[in-house]
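Z., the sequence and structure:
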Amino acid sequence: MGKLDGKTTIITGAASGIGRATAMLFAAEGARVAVADWSEEGEGVAAGIRASGIDAIFVKTDVSNPDDVQAMIAAAVGRWGALHVIFNNAGVEGVMGVPTAEASLENWQRVISINLTGVFLGMKYAIPELLRSGGGSIINNASVAGIVGFQGIGAYCASKGGVIQLSKTAALEYATQGIRVNAICPGVIDTPMVQRSIGDSAETAAAFRAMEPVGRFGTPEEVARVALFLASDDSSFCTGAPFVVDGGFVAA
């Protein structure tokens, strides 16, 4: 028996990285999975899940677009009749290495619209369906950058700090109505986002690795296992918390 047997789940940003790993793990634990992403590669993830014998759909979604988010939720509920878990995982890093006074408004607005407004929209439109299902779990992907500052990525840090506070607020609002809301705060995880930041530089890769006290990158699968805990009944007494998955980074 899987930990998510019979549950309907939505995962945004599920075409790659943490989202993809989580979609595959949720499916392995019996969940029906709506794979949401703006990349068509999400169809391949959904097809892989269906090949394993678990129902899955791909929904092309721009999480910063309210119409897309409503359509994403409607697609999952329309296919399976209910919603039990949403993992608002989609995010972008934006332009990096630019001090606040030199940062562009365009970059600020793009990062905030996807990383923070996207989470807000996911919760706004998912909560009514979760209530109709008798409750459920909302998981929001934040970052250690929402806990500590990093020079040159002000928009990213602000967006992720906002995700943590938004998660706490919603957790309090719905605590007595069967909805749990938590945030995951990954450290340096071996994802396409981190690889874009590293590029072909072995020196940069070593510097990123040195940021982690454990001496290595985390894997998407390690974050996915925390998402599974939060999606399942194992975390029934957990709400309003930032779950740090960072190899000891914020402890240093």
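The domain at 8-186+219-245 is CATH 3.40.50.720 (Rossmann fold). The mean pLDDT is 95.

Let me know what you think.
H.
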